[in-house]
Design brief:
The complex is a heterotrimer. Chain A is α+β, with helices and mostly antiparallel strands. In chain A, about 30% of the residues lie in helices and about 20% in strands. Chain A has a domain of about 90 residues: Alpha-Beta Plaits, CATH 3.30.70. The longest helix of chain A has 15 residues. In chain B, the strands form 5 sheets. In chain B, strands 1-2-5-4-3 form a 5-stranded mixed β-sheet. Chain B has a 4-stranded mixed β-sheet with strand order 9-8-15-16. In chain B, strand 12 and strand 13 form a beta hairpin. By secondary structure, chain C is mainly α. Classes of the chains: A alpha+beta, B alpha+beta, C mainly alpha. Bound molecules: iron/sulfur cluster (SF4) (2 copies). One iron/sulfur cluster (SF4) binds next to helix 3 of chain A.
Amino acid sequence: MVKFVKVLPIAAKIGTVTIRYPYAKPIVTDSFRGAIEVDPSKCTGCGACTRICPPKALSLNIEGGTAILRYFVGRCIFCGMCADICPEKAIKITKEFELASEQVSDLYIDVEHEVVTCRKCGSKFVTSKLLNKVEQKLSEFSKELLSLCPRCRRVEMLSKQVYLR
Amino acid sequence: MESLSTDNEFENLYSYLKKISNRFVEEEDHLRIVVENEKLREVAEVLSKTEGVFLRTIAASDERSVNGFYKMYYVFGLDRIHRNIVVEVPLDAENPVIPSIADIVKAADWYEREAHDLIGIKFSGRILHRFVLPDDWPENVYPLRKDYTVQDLVKLYRPEIIAKAREVEAEAAIIIPIGPYHPALHEPEYFELYVRGEKVVGARYVGFMVHRGIEKLAESMKYDQVPFLAERICGICGYVHSTSYCQAVEKALKIHVPERAEYIRSIVLEIERIHSHLLWLGVALHLLGYDTGFMHVWRIREQVMILAEMLTGSRKTYGLNIVGGVRRDIDRDKVNKCVKVLDSIAKEFKEFVEIAMSVPQVKSRLRGTGLLPRNEAASLSLVGPTVRGSGIPRDVRRDYPYAAYKYIDFKPVVRTECDNMARTEVRVEEVFQSIELVKNFLDRLPGGGIAVDSWEPEPYRFGIGAVEAPRGEVIHVIVTGRYSPYRWRVRAPTYQNLPAVPIMLRDVDLADAPITIASIDPCFSCTDRALIINIEKSDVRDVPLVALSLKGSRLLR
Amino acid sequence: MNLSTLISIPISILLYIFLPPLLDGVERKVKADIQSRIGPPTILQTWYDILKLISKEVVLSMNPRYVVLTLSLSLTMLISLAVTISYSISLLNLDMYIVITVLILLLAIHSLYLTLYIFSSNPFSIVGTFRIATIDILNEAGLVAFAILTAVSISISRASPRDYLLIAIALTALAIAVYVSQRRLPYDLHEAEPELASGAIIEFSGAVLGFYIYSHLLERYILASIPMIFVAYLMSSTLYLNPVIAMLLIHILASSIYLLYAVISALIGRSRVNLAVKTINFIYFLAIAIWLGVYILWNP
Ligand code: SF4
Ligand code: SF4
């Protein structure tokens, strides 16, 4: 009838399970996915991660002479899709999750890239790193064409074909 | 399978349906018939009169740009033969009017109101007032119509309340000391309880305080981003939503998910159920004043959370699903750890649940309270432990087997007492059942890949994905688009179950109202604001409890 | 009145004043242990809470006259109760006069509390108030009956084991009535469902809440010490004790029973008003029946 007293021996056996967080270390397993870290030396600024990121925590914008890959951890849901998709494996998933800050600027992390200007129209269209990468991969492709923005390139190709004919 | 004999059971129905309309498509999991506006009521009548047919969901869709119509999709489930009948009704683009079937099929009530609010469908035979949208929403703006993008809507509507707060400089002017203790905060839902003394004689529910427009948002997201959005529909059982969504897309586009991925999905789904049921039991015990039970159940649950993190990378919102499979594999090492943890949970939980159920107050307040008669449960097409506690063995895992449930024999847990205790017992037993299921799945985990290599979206395909969530059936209906879903209809179990609450509240003591409301496991969004109307004096008092619910007694103990 | 009695009285009064929040701190720690938690950082936490609350600004939602008047009145009466009991246990005398004074003061304090609750402007706390009134009225009767029954049992000659059994029965019943009076689980119905109905204290904050909590804890401790007065008296008649030691012993016993109550209340759930009335009625009638049965049937 007084079976409910049996909770006492259980409690005695188990002891205390709560921890004095935040003074004690939080318990996270090895699999835990936290905030991401972009390795600026590996990242080429291709923007693949910004297109897959579900909450749009990553963005790539060209401001002045630089392309900025901006990571706003305030929106990040720690899904790791960006790390999965990144062709350069530049994104590392960390175990960091205690990210509160009094300064909103602390929540933004930027990776800056130099941008190439289109030889013809002067528009800024790609980071120089990505261009180099592509150049290495497609050596047979003429350098001339690669330094054009997609629109000028199309025009150039067409006009060449016309010229050849 | 048993298809031959059972197919016969519904033979008459099928031949009737095929007679009434010659436009039908037969798919593996459903028969879709196009029915004219005028014939809808007759069809609904026939379907609702047939034993064993339940309304699963209704989706309204704006397909004017595709085929010139608004469409209503009524999904009826024939649980026993594991198939659906989808009644598709095209509506005039200029004047979308359809006869209401809420008087024939009781469960259709909310769906019609929602379609009315969000797509602007008019229902003849029924006067509808605003239900989902807030009172200050602009007239004649139907957010799910394709005329509006998410950005348009954000521009169109700014909740008045924000402006009002600014006007009085709310932040600066009002200081409410809430003391060093925390007020009770759940999710915003609203019940009116009609009481006579300490007896509840009636109840009314007003919901949709937090309609977030997720369905609309998904229409602007890519296929592989939506699972992460879907997962955020529910903070407790999000994984069922991402699974349902993926299954709906996979069904629509006929993508075959690798078997290993199906197993992994089922494993994680069951782990989610274990954590959710333990969470529920803890809170239920808390509502019965047995806080020691609350603490210990949650202590046991913590191991499940850590287990989930180990398997998926996150305690909650696992982020595991993508269309065509899953993102993380389970290796041998994890399998072993998992089995070990599950065994210890099973042992500890068994020991503790016996103790908790022997507490006199827990026993006496669960038994015989919150009665939900079997026939009412059936007529409202209820789902999950709520319906299973009333003796009806509805369970998507058995009725519409998906993922790895296809490969096993599954028997739903049923109780026939129809009271709060029955629903509690169903959940308790399901914890053990889920533990066994996970172990079984881990044992049989087949080899192979965990996701399809690639797939191509194809627009305007129709798909249904359903999952047995901890609270009952979750069902997603999808009409595919080129890059994003064209229309995505989500129906969570609480949506189906809430109309049962007023029935269960009839004649309970006021003190048992919270546990009764909680007994459907309504994502615990039930109790923030309550309105007590004293019938004898017929005065209405309305108090926002959030501001007041300083848990007084907690201070003193 | 000798010196040790003179010392004993003020010490006892001070213990009454300072011990209750400390005991509550211990209770919270004990509960935390039972629930596998760490609990509050120190056993002084309740004192810190009360002091913090008292230092906060005063915000009153109901008519301040009623709140301040009733609260200060009940606090005064509680302290005079503490003084009376301190006298009684230090002098180790137990006449009916003191028992009756204590009971009257207690009843007065309870009705003051009820007045305080009823003045609440909040409909939800009215629900809680009616619940507590129901339980209180029933239990008050039990409290008085068992206190008198204990006094009567003690005044019987104490010649045979039967008389000790009678005392034990009456004391146990009194201990139960005290437990219910302390408004612990399962009978803390006035603050039961904070989502739906609640007691009056949801209306309090800051200093008022601080004083309310203090007076409530003081009342709890005084209640816990009532059965101990009888115990002390019994002891004094069998063996001689220095008044200071006797007084300290009583406080230790009262604290122990307080903590025993705490453990019990951690093990069970909350009742419902109609259920509670039934259970309490049953237990009290049973106790009286047993007492009478023993008295009549067992003839030494
Ligand atoms: S996908 Fe990788 S390489 Fe491309 S922008 Fe993102 S981090 Fe840089
Ligand atoms: S982890 Fe997910 S949410 Fe965060 S940046 Fe990467 S893709 Fe975006």
